[in-house]
Amino acid sequence: MLGEGGFGRVFKGVLSDGTAVAIKKLSSGGHQGDKELLVEVEMLSRLHHRNLVKLVGYYSCRDLAHNLLCYELVPNGSLDSWLHGPLGANCPLDWETRMKIALDAARGLAYLHEDSQPCVIHRDFKASNILLENNFHAKVSDFGLAKQAPEGRANYLSTRVMGTFGYVAPEYAMTGHLLVKSDVYSFGVVLLELLTGRRPVDMSQPSGQENLVTWARPILRDSNRLEELADPRLAGKYPKDDFVRVCTVAAACVAHEANQRPTMGEVVQSLKMVQHVAEYQDPLPTPSTNPHNKQSSTTFESDATSSMFSSGPFSGLSLFDNDNISRTAVFSEDLHEGR
């Protein structure tokens, strides 16, 4: 068995051609279980992106209450297990690996929001639904709660509140109004997990620090305190300027008002620019021990790049005031890579 959750259990399997796969056996949830199966099959049948888990097939037998989903095997566990579980206990994720995971997960969500037709809201984006390859490239999984985004004038869906405590956006939790920007909030929580190493909700923390976003918000507003957020397991081995930039992205994503949050496309661009700045500048004195991270040899020109955010309190903030890096280079790479 690979894992277990509220949806059921996940087992490792092997197809007749020798391909290793993951088999999710959904808990017998009656009509709701059937609905989640159909949603996930329908979604993944038409969603194809390198940062989304691929559905291989499914089996359903209502009489026996058997609902099985067969996925490509993503062999290196979840982000949750690396940040908060046994996988990362002896070998914590370094800064470069965390940023690789953040960018991949952002690309997966951006595809759902901006490149799929119709647009999809994941509704249960969290660290345990980010699965990792052996080279730590990330794939977004578990589309059982996903919803098709509204079209036309309506910018939200009225729906029963579902998701995971600590990741659910405030407007959705309070009103049942689900927006595309509700996923952005959830991504911001995951980004804070990567920065801090803390769980979204941890009752073992001191009073007032149990909720990650509530604890982090006042620190994110004070540039002199940002290093208080850093995961102690990073042992200070991260570029300080990049840490500040990623904190800015996280703060924008978890803004209380949905219209103050960036789009996932803007988040992808911002994280890619952070990555390119790190590649352009001199390497850290203590290089990453992760052999899977490769650096780009791209040359950049300055074009007075400003903030990637088009709205919200961070819209006028330049993340890259003095960096000799071109936004054009990042966009042209998008066209080459398909985001």
Automatic annotation (TrEMBL):
Instruction: Please tell me where ATP binds in this chain.
Output: 25
Q: Where is this region: Disordered?
A: 281-305
- Active-site feature positions: 124 (proton acceptor)
Compositional bias of kind Polar residues: 287-305
Q: Which residues form the Protein kinase domain?
A: 1-274
Annotated binding of Mg(2+), by residue:
129, 142
- Do you know which PROSITE patterns this protein is assigned to? PROTEIN_KINASE_ATP, PROTEIN_KINASE_DOM, PROTEIN_KINASE_ST
Tell me one GO molecular function of this protein: metal ion binding
User: Keywords in UniProt for this one?
Assistant: ATP-binding, Kinase, Magnesium, Metal-binding, Nucleotide-binding, Serine/threonine-protein kinase, Transferase
* Lineage: superkingdom: Eukaryota
Family to which this protein belongs = Belongs to the protein kinase superfamily.
Spell out the protein name for this chain: Protein kinase domain-containing protein
Organism name: Ensete ventricosum (Abyssinian banana)
